[in-house]
Amino acid sequence: MSPAVLFKTEIVIRNNCMSVRKKFPIRLAAGLLLAIVIDTALQLVWKTAVLSLPNDGSPWLNVQAILHNPLFIFVIFLMAWQFFNWLMVLGDADLSYAQPVTSLSYVSVFFLSVLYLKEAADPIQITGIIFVVAGVWFISQTDHVTQSQEREA
Amino acid sequence: MGQTAIGVLLVVICTLLEGVGQVFLKKSVLGVVHWYLWLSFGSVIMVLQAAIYTKALLFLDVGAAYAISSLNLISTTLMSRCLLGENVTRVRWVGVCLIFIGVGLVVART
Fold first, then answer.
1. What whole-number distance in Å separates Cα of residue A105 and Cα of residue B93?
2. How many whole angstroms separate alpha carbon A27 and alpha carbon A30?
3. I need a labelling partner for B24 at 20 to 30 A (CA). Which of A80, A88, A118, B92 fits?
4. Residue A115: its pLDDT value, please?
5. Is position A153 within any domain?
6. Is A61 a domain residue?
7. How far apart are CA A28 and CA A8, in angstroms?
8. Which residues of A touch B58 (CB under 8 A)?
9. Residues in chain B, pLDDT under 50
10. Cα gap B39→A98, rounded to integer Å
């Protein structure tokens, strides 16, 4: 087979692949981005809130502390916001697609820690960040929704 | 049982509960009959999971808890495949495994 024919065949295969892959909705992109932002904030605020709890092991004192701590109120607000945003995301994408993509919050937490908390950037951690980004790239190459479920919905 | 072991056990329970809760939530948006039951049970499971995770943070460093909780990527992907019938291709599995390894490396030094 001549190089020209091979080139044309490749173009045809590429065009077919592009037409088979479903269009990525902007609403889903916005939902996933928001999920990553909220998850980042949630992780940072939640740990700060837990550290402020009395450490005497009494559940009743913990409940009282939670009810009077504005940080926990903010955690609950973030959780509620995350919940409704997540339902919207799940309406547009497979669970096995959307959940791994939100792992990008590990990347955002890492960069926020380095930029604003002046934590040291370890080479092993940077390798991990590259793995996470590569993993999300692989997932982004798959269809965001299973066809049979799309028909059901 | 030591405090660390209790913390690890609680976070592992959280990862399994999150997988089940996520499947229930996904079911609720698939337009199935009694979607509100799936949503309610899913919500209850997620609240329970959050309460257990909060307790686990008292026994474990956030880095360790975060690392173990990344197991929910594997459990949720498996449950999506088996319980929801999602098309989890090899490429998607490669992505999930890379993220799992990456998260492990990121939080290992936390």
1. 19
2. 5
3. B92
4. 81
5. no
6. yes
7. 34
8. 50, 53, 55
9. none
10. 18
Residue B49 and residue B24 in contact, taking contact as beta carbons nearer than 8 Å: no
Burial of A108 (0-12, 13-18, 19+ CB in 10 A): middle
Count: domains in chain B: 1
Of B14, B9, B18, which is closest to residue B76 (Cα–Cα)? B18
pLDDT digits (tens, 9 = 90+) for B40-70: 999 999 889 988 988 888 888 877 787 788 8
The range of the structural domain enclosing residue A118 comes to 3-143
- CB-CB under 8 Å, B25 with A87: yes
Best mutation target, B18, B47, B87, to test chain A (most A CBs within 10 A): B87
* Beta-carbon-side half-sphere exposure of residue B56 (alpha carbons within 13 Å): 25
- Expressed as residue numbers, the domain containing B86 is 3-108
Nearest to A106 by CA among A71, A137, A131: A131
- The answer to whether ipTM exceeds 0.95 is no
Count: domains in chain A: 1
pLDDT, tens digit (0-9, with 9 covering 90-100), for A44-80:
787 777 777 776 666 677 777 777 788 888 988 998 9
Position A9 confidence tier, pLDDT thresholds 50, 70, 90: low
